[in-house]
Amino acid sequence: MSNLSRRAFFTKTGALILGVSLPILAKAQDKIVTSKSEDNSHHSVNTPTNNEYHNAYIEITSNNQILFHIPDIEFGQGIYTAAAMLLAEELEVELSAIKVDAALPNPEYILKGEVTEVTWGSGSTQKDWFPLQQSAAILRTMLLQAAAQSWKIDINQCHAKAGQIYGQNGQQAPYAQFLHDIYNLSIPKEVPLKKTEDYRLIGKSQPRVDTSEKIKGKAIYATDIHLEDPSVPAIRTGLMIACPVVGGKLAHLDDKNAKQIQGVIDIVSLENIVCIIAENFWIASKAAKQLVIEWDYGSQSAATTDSIYKQLDQAADEQQAIIGYNNSSEKIEVSLNATSHIYNGTYKQPMLLHAALEPLSCTIFINETKCEIWSCSQTPLWTRDKVAALLKRDTKEIYFHNVFVGGSFGRRLNDEYILQAVQFAQKVSYPLKCVWSREEDFVQDHVRPPYLDQIEAGVDADGLITAVKHHIIGPSVTAFWDKSLLSKEGMDPDLLLGIDTLPYQIPHYQLNYTNCDIQSIIPGWWQGNGATRNIFVVESTINKCAKKAKKDPIEYRKLLKPDARAIAVIDMVAQHAQWEQQPPKDIGRGFAMAHVFGSYIAMVVEAEITAMSVVRLHRVIVALDCGLAVNPDQISAQIESSAIYGLGAALYNEVQIQNGQIVQRNFNQYRVLHMNEVPQIEVHIIKSNEHPSGVGELGTIVSAPALADALGSILNKNLYSLPLNKYLT
Amino acid sequence: MVELNINNKIVRLDVSDDMPLLWVLRDVMGLTGTKYGCGIGECGACTVHLDGKPVRSCSLPVGSIGNQSIITIEGLDNDPIAQKILDGWVEKQPTQCGYCQPGQIMAAIALLHEKEKPSKEEINRALSGHVCRCGMYQRIRNAIKVAVGSTEDE
């Protein structure tokens, strides 16, 4: 949100000022502080009952500790660190002085342009960039004002450093000393932010603030919760077994034998899911084997992978809606007819699992006064409100703790598992730790849906691409997720992602869409969203046209009038990949680029196909322009991460459906990249002072087309379909 | 009743012999640093040491352990090699979501107990059964290299 309005900004800043914990309100503050034990390896259930500070970003405690309650969730992308850097920079404290934890959901955190609090779309740093710095700068200025008044000197004779205010006559006091006073000051409307050249932290690689707890096994994930309050009953484990077919229901449950097992406490069920509650996971999984469950699989029990693809093929002949174009003066057919040659291609992209390492998980405790939940939701406010509606309780009684999570890749944008867990917790009188086995996590995944993309690409006499008709056939994830995000005409903006911001010029590009709902799957957001699908198609098309024109793919793109930032990443990646030199013998080299989430990325992949028809990934070189790089080392880590995620999926992954069920049940059936298989990765970041833009998903978005280009150059053909290992057999 | 030596303490637990060590650690002992990822020994998130050797605790019944020493991510205090590994981890920052990291770290420490300066291939062999969905493998390898005093990065 680079163009954050003043109004939105003040809403957020207002939250900040309200939230500065003051000793004068020690009663409320004490409760907040005691709710977070010093050693955060254990969570207490004594959550604050006073809501006054739940919209605080920043708390300065009476002992000068700075607490930062962050609305963005941390699923690995490093936002706890980047956001703390923004605060520390303007607050004039060291990064280590800020303790970061998850904020409770609050409407105050919704930024203008967002439908709710949401962590997605590689957007956290870019949306936090201005509000967090401005909040910290205002707070620092008010502390300086308070000190100046107290010392009866001018504010310009004071400065802030390392959590202390200094006066020019040798005065010194910690920030905490002025907390009483700042409430009497009016809030400055705007405080100028630091100049780039004055940054102490921003732009300089900082270690992650969550490293220590994560490498010592002390980081708390949803099933690591211990409740130490002696008045709370012992926590029990609820193992989930859900109907494996979408739309199916429980028909009959015989739990007689399962209940005989010592340590089994309850067996409860909802319409389409059973929860075996036991003293621990092991007993619950033993009992699961003794359960006799009959499902009524419903109407989707005959679905197969083939039937799903057939459905897409049939939909391809149905009516298309025009959803986007960049030339309104003539019809795409006219533009295509004016070209020298038209290349057709149909691209096929499979269903994919998220396969995060931590299976779905959620711990809940409900009593008369509150419902407390430890889990992960990328839309925590929605989740809180849905829980409140389900329990028919005030939202103030719902405490949703967004704890660390072992990856998401888009899965935690759906919170149906939390609502299931709440319904089970409602049926029992003790805290419930709901666990999904790996098998259940895979089978219950909201998969990246399958797509067909038909391309007609027209080139001029020089072989340059001038007109593209692009027809997408598949489900709309947005329509399933939140219809309010569709345009007035019912169009899904995600379908345009990446095409609406191409880094080069294609004079006439038209996107058509045929919706094809696939009832046997639940479509979910997956790393890179629509851009991952679109960029594979458009970049593969560009690489194909370059080959047809007998032009180098990099030179070809330069002929398509890329903008200056695009040229810079192209040149940078070419230089570091030694593009001018021929690749080593037997190595195929591929190129792809994108401009999405505000950033530019160019990737070169070097790969080999061995005599045994095995793909070896040798080297990946990336150039990235993400505006001002707030924490360069973690930006690099994000690209490494998303590239490995994307390369593994592009090479190996495809969800199979049989009898309406996802076939793959564990990592032995869903191949992910391991240490001995990954390429050497280099990430080169353009130096820039532009507004920070998205990073997290960029590597995934270009991986498939770059790898397809590399393998295609070895196999001497254009590769239209994923996963790519299908071409090797 | 099973008697186990966990992090240099003898504990007597009322659990069945066939219960995998992972669930004894997590659900009985409250040692939640060891993680569940797959339950079939495919991902390595549950790796602990048994007499110094890395084992998949999700697939190890406690009845088979006897008096062998179990060390978990919480029990590394007196191990100088563990400290070197953790220092390497801090320097190379291979942690993202963090869920696989205790398992990766336990495997790395066991490797260094066995081999003072492992080669890249030896590191790959020792850790290639560990899944990191954040794809931090190159950084993990570099962190191990730092721990053994190597300065060359990939």
TrEMBL record, chain A:
Does the record carry Manganese as a key word?
A: no
| Annotated Pfam families | MoCoBD_1, MoCoBD_2
Q: Does the keyword Nucleotide-binding apply?
A: no
Keyword annotations for this protein, in alphabetical order, are: Signal
Question: Can you tell which superkingdom this protein's organism belongs to?
Answer: Bacteria
**Signal peptide start and end residues:** 1-28
Q: Where are the transmembrane segments?
A: none
Q: Which InterPro entries match?
A: Ald_Oxase/Xan_DH_a/b, AldOxase/xan_DH_MoCoBD1, AldOxase/xan_DH_MoCoBD2, AldOxase/xan_DH_Mopterin-bd_sf, N-heterocyclic_Hydroxylase, OxRdtase_Mopterin-bd_su_IorB, TAT_signal
Tell me what organism the protein belongs to: Commensalibacter communis
- Residue span(s) of domain Aldehyde oxidase/xanthine dehydrogenase a/b hammerhead: 216-299
Under which name does UniProt file this protein? CO or xanthine dehydrogenase
- GO molecular-function annotation terms? oxidoreductase activity
TrEMBL record, chain B:
Checking InterPro entries in the record gives: 2Fe-2S-bd, 2Fe-2S-bd_dom_sf, 2Fe-2S_ferredoxin-like_sf, 2Fe-2S_ferredoxin-type, 2Fe2S_fd_BS, Beta-grasp_dom_sf, Diverse_Oxidoreductases
Query: Known Pfam families for this protein?
Result: Fer2, Fer2_2
This protein's species is: Commensalibacter communis
SUPFAM superfamilies per the UniProt record, alphabetical: 2Fe-2S ferredoxin-like, CO dehydrogenase ISP C-domain like
GO MF assignments: 2 iron, 2 sulfur cluster binding; metal ion binding; oxidoreductase activity
Q: Which UniProt keywords apply?
A: 2Fe-2S, Iron, Iron-sulfur, Metal-binding, Oxidoreductase
Q: Domain 2Fe-2S ferredoxin-type: where?
A: 1-76
Q: Tell me where on the tree of life, at the top rank, the source sits.
A: Bacteria
Q: Which PANTHER family match?
A: BLR6218 PROTEIN, OXIDOREDUCTASE WITH IRON-SULFUR SUBUNIT
Q: What is this protein called?
A: CO
